[in-house]
Design a protein that fits this description.
alpha+beta, Arc Repressor Mutant, subunit A, five-stranded mixed β-sheet
């Protein structure tokens, strides 16, 4: 993430300390690295200060709102084919370093990304981020998984591929003339099934959902979490969720228990994510945020936030 800041007048170590990362330890062999939340917090800190959603990786900044604009272009399409075409057109307007296009090759279709200047290759992190973000966004628009046949990258195969299977769960091809992701061409006719309300919720914390490795909530728990996301800022009862999922409250409770979770835990997990996002990216008052998240009052919300993160809301927002 920090590779685009090399050689620039940026206090990288200061940003690392800001999100609770020891710069010296991070550069020491054997250090366990950073947590997903530290990673996302670093992303938000740099984004807010640099006003560049791509962290200086391209010749001109991706101004805040570029990702939202791209997502809305996809949302306005009828199916995946037209969504990828519209998103490609938007991305080609927003930057000057990569040509984005939808391509088909027999039974395969792919979002093709070609570096414009062969003398200046697209950085590794930029390739990986673009491929992952746009694949996850496409799947989100369909509201269903988008199985990938293979991911392509232009850089040589890394010696250490620890973690790659989680982030890119399909065969990876290296040293290719272009980068992108490829899937069954039949998927192009899949309709876009999200709406503006869902997009507004998604954009409150899209980076956490897309950048961080996916969390495995369990099949039933994921359905419950998805319903909670769609219902936000309303917080349905167990009975309402069970009715929506065409089951009984007792059956739903049993399935969640088998997956080592509960409705309350899923609500709190989602409320924590939303609270972190809103405190990091907006000036919403604590009273309003408490109401949005379904708390009876601001002190109750602030106690819960302290329990979730170990920090008071004000201290977290200042950091």
């Amino acid at each position: 993430m920090l590779s685009g800041l090399e050689g620039k007048d940026v206090d990288v170590d200061g940003y690392l300390r800001q999100v609770g990362v020891n710069p010296q330890a991070l550069r020491t062999p054997g250090d366990p690295g950073v947590t997903p939340m530290q990673y996302v917090a670093l992303f938000y800190a740099l984004l807010n200060d640099m006003q560049d959603e791509c962290m200086g990786l391209f010749s001109r900044p991706f101004k805040p709102g570029s990702f939202a604009l791209t997502a809305r272009e996809g949302l306005s399409a009828a199916d995946l084919r037209h969504a990828l075409k519209r998103m490609s057109k938007a991305l080609n307007l927003l930057q000057d370093d990569i040509t984005f296009s939808l391509q088909t090759n027999g039974d395969e279709a792919g979002l093709h990304m070609q570096t414009i200047d062969p003398v200046t290759p697209t950085p590794v992190f930029a390739q990986e981020t673009m491929v992952r973000v746009l694949w996850r966004l496409a799947a989100w628009l369909l509201n269903k998984p988008l199985p990938v046949l293979h991911f392509d990258f232009t850089y040589p195969e890394p010696e250490d591929q620890k973690g790659y299977n989680l982030v890119f769960p399909a065969p990876r091809r290296y040293a290719q003339p272009s980068f992108g992701f490829w899937f069954q061409a039949s998927e192009l006719d899949t309709p876009v099934s999200r709406d503006e309300h869902a997009l507004r919720i998604f954009l409150t914390d899209a980076y956490t959902q897309i950048i961080s490795p996916p969390r495995d909530f369990g099949a039933v728990a994921q359905k419950v979490r998805n319903h909670l996301m769609r219902s936000y800022p309303q917080w349905p009862t167990l009975e309402a969720v069970a009715e929506q999922l065409h089951t009984t409250p007792s059956t739903l409770q049993r399935h969640l228990k088998e997956e080592h979770t509960s409705l309350q835990w899923l609500k709190d997990d989602l409320r924590r994510d939303l609270a972190i996002s809103r405190l990091s990216t907006s000036r919403v008052s604590l009273v309003q945020l408490a109401s949005e998240l379904g708390f009876s009052d601001s002190p109750t919300f602030q106690r819960a936030f302290k329990r979730w993160t170990g920090k008071h809301c004000g201290a977290y927002r200042r950091r």
